[in-house]
Amino acid sequence: MHRVGDGHEVALRLQVGVGGGGGRVDHRVGRHARRDQPLLDLLRRPSPCFLATLMPDGSPQMTQTWVDTDGRHVLVNTVDGHQKVRNMRRDPRVSMALIDPDNPYRYLQLQGRVVEITEEGADRHIDKMAKKYLGQDKYPFRQPGEVRVLYKIEPDRVSTIG
Asked: CA-CA distance, 112 to 70, in Å (whole number)?
């Protein structure tokens, strides 16, 4: 396990305010925030997710990825060595956009930071993601020798539309 940033773990509850009429809702996420079902719904469903990280020169790098939550963090599972991995190890700041698979006009955006990087449980987790996104019990694209890595992201700012 690798800690990122200041090295302490913050108990986090994911939060998005409840807005009316499909308008935009913007909220800070903090230590004592409450759970919000609309946000957790998008994280628990097979929602398309786009992850932005920062290249060494400061330019953005965007990747489509599968996403999950443990109820406290946003979880991203990837292969060690990819560009997004190098970027998040160097600079933990990230931005994400998740789109409702049933309604592309309902989505959420978040800004946050990677607070933990671990290989522990990452192989089991990618199989869980294969079930969620592909309907398969095992991740079918595993390559010999690849090392799976699980990133825990703490949202700092969340906004929703729809």
From this structure: 15
